[in-house]
Amino acid sequence: MCEGERAEWQAFEKQHVWHPYVSMAAPPEIFAVARAEGVRLYLEDGRELIDGMSSWWCAIHGYNVPELNAAAAAQLRKMSHVMFGGLTHEPAARLAERLLQMAPAGMRHVFFADSGSVSVEVAIKMALQYWQAQGRPEKKRLLTIRHGYHGDTFGAMGVCDPHGGMHHLFAGVLPHHLFADAPDSAQWNESQIADFEAKISAHRDELAAVILEPIVQGAGGMRFYAAEFLRRIRALCDASDVLLIVDEIATGFGRTGRMFACEHAAISPDIMCVGKALTGGYMTMAAVLTTSEVMHGLHKDGGVLMHGPTFMANPLACAVALASIDLLLASPWQQRVNAIEAQLKHELEACRGLNAVADVRVLGAIGVVELHRPVDMARIQPMFVEHGVWLRPFGKLVYTMPPLVIDSKDLNVVTQAIHDVLKDVEAGMVSR
Predict the structure, then answer these.
(1) Active-site positions?
(2) How far is residue 403's CA from residue 60's CA, in Å, rounded to a whole number?
(3) φ and ψ at 358, to 5 degrees?
(4) C or N: which end of the chain has fewer Cβ atoms within 10 Å?
């Protein structure tokens, strides 16, 4: 592509293409990617960046992966898409089989969806329709913990933190669900469960389900909590006749050091959402797994689940997802995650000595540096690019969730960039 053509499309893009969570009236600098391979993004201007974000946590194998390319090419020669209403195909069946083999005990059925947010919508519908079919229509509210994030669609927004989250603008039109205090640290103490216990006890007759992110709260604050908290939640749901939905969209497929984060607590949910890394970042896809009890209960008296995405179980996405899972299972993924965790703990610790830093925390292939004040995105994003890394901070958080295939040398570049950029930002704040 000649320089004139490149300048032309980028100028058009800047004027007309709307990016997430930014103002088009005063758009920040946007970086054009020409190609990606391994753990690197190659920009149109010739610079290369080590991706510390796995493209919002999904590209766990990196980019331009031969095995995934081959799976996509092979499926394209057969069919790229066919509707899932009244038709089926082998990639969907094989992928469902593999997911159920990997999933926590009790998962028996799979409903495919378009994205993580949509999978949460489906999970909520499953829970509500289950209780309607049981003759308990009054059980139509959900209970969750504060600081959670479950997606940007309206049902999902309804169970995101209503005050500290990004969806407060819609508070007047969202369903009114219940929010309990979230654990305040990853160290367990009995007081952490008190508010949740009180709320589930007081509202059990109107609660359809509890929904939460297991062990790691992602976009709501990158907060970690103790496995015991999740175990207690499972027990309280059982005792209160309430379904448990776990949102493994960000935590699934090895990110926390276990295949699914709920394994840290050795519990099984009634409904589980997966997405993001499901296709290795190649295309959008998600799934909702559930038990036979929920499935049969929902279908009581001939009821059907009222959801049917156009691109549900897209054959191309299913084929790539199956190849991605097989590639993950054939790899030493646990050793890789353990090595990433150890390196992040060691190298990010230096950030704790900066005055701007409030906390440093690491779990699996997740490294978080929390600041005392929100970052200036327009300033800090280009600084990371100048250091040769791609990170996407938000709020008070600078964090990395790199591809699981990243080597120690490249990861060191990421951690060093985090420290050096924050040090430069701190120095600039003092000089002003």
Answers:
(1) 21, 149, 247, 276
(2) 4
(3) -95, -35
(4) C
Compute CA distances 199 → 136, 143, 145, 194, 337, whole Å. Answer: 19, 8, 11, 9, 36
What's the Cα-to-Cα distance from 430 to each of 370, 416, 423, rounded to whole Å? 19, 21, 11
> What is the per-residue pLDDT across 181-232, written as a single tens digit (0 to 9) for each?
999 999 999 999 999 999 999 999 999 999 999 999 999 999 999 999 999 9
Residue 22 burial (CB count, 10 A): 13
Could you count the other beta carbons within 10 Å of the beta carbon of residue 176?
Answer: 9
Distance CA 193, CA 196 (A): 5
Alpha carbon distance 355, 372 (integer Å):
9
Indicate the residue type of 56: W
From the list 148, 136, 101, 147, the residue with the least C-alpha distance to 245 is: 148
Query: CA–CA separation, 155 vs 175, rounded Å?
Result: 8
Q: For residues 326 and 130, what is the distance between their CA atoms, to the nearest angstrom?
A: 33
pLDDT at 350 over 70: yes
- Domains by residue range for the chain, with CATH: 1-50 (no CATH), 68-330 (3.40.640.10), 337-373 (no CATH)
290, 272 Cβ separation under 8 angstroms: yes
pLDDT in tens, 242-293: 999 999 999 999 999 999 999 999 999 999 999 999 999 999 999 999 999 9
Question: Which residues have CB under 8 Å from 422's CB, separation 6+?
Answer: 351, 354, 356, 357, 369, 371, 398
Residues 6+ apart with CB under 8 A from 246: 211, 212, 213, 214, 260, 261, 262, 269, 271, 272, 273
Task: Give me 342's structure tokens.
Answer: 């150890």
